[in-house]
Give the backbone structure.
Amino acid sequence: PAAATDGYQARMSGRGLGSVTPDEAAEQLSTIEKMLIVDDFEGLREQDRANFTELIKKLANRKARLTLLLAGNGSSPELLLPGIEGIRHYVTAIEVTPLDRQALGQIIDQGFASIDVEIDPAARDYILAQSQDLARVVHRYCLDCVYALRDRIRSGEKDALKVEMAECELAESDRPTVG
């Protein structure tokens, strides 16, 4: 289950809601007057997303003052929240324009510059090509490449602070398969 942090933000990792039912969650959450954030909402199993629809219904019945922010990729709330029809008036969709390739490239350039690490143009292009045009994927690839660079420097294979294709390939080989 997602656990609230001091900032009342929660992150689901796609493992499901565990044994918490919408009724139990509504009972606990209905006393909170903060915001609960669930990121990568589209990555949850459909049954878990349906449970969130049920949770929203339960919170509405309890007149809860909690704000649930469900961040996810979808063309409409109906695709993210199965069975939303009965609670549509409680749901506000905010459309966010995806970043273009230039903006994603700036994330890479500024990120590596901020830690004084160079990036080979081929490695930069590779990260952009693999990014699915999603900033979170760019962030993850960059982080994985930095870890691969760190490991290669520690092992003595490399001494320059420059991410090249070798680091991208190492990061890719460590990436779990999804399926």
User: Anything to note?
Assistant: The helical segments are 22-29, 46-61, 77-80, 101-114, 121-130, 135-154, 165-174. The two ends are 21 Å apart (CA to CA). Residues 44 and 114 are 33 Å apart (CA to CA).
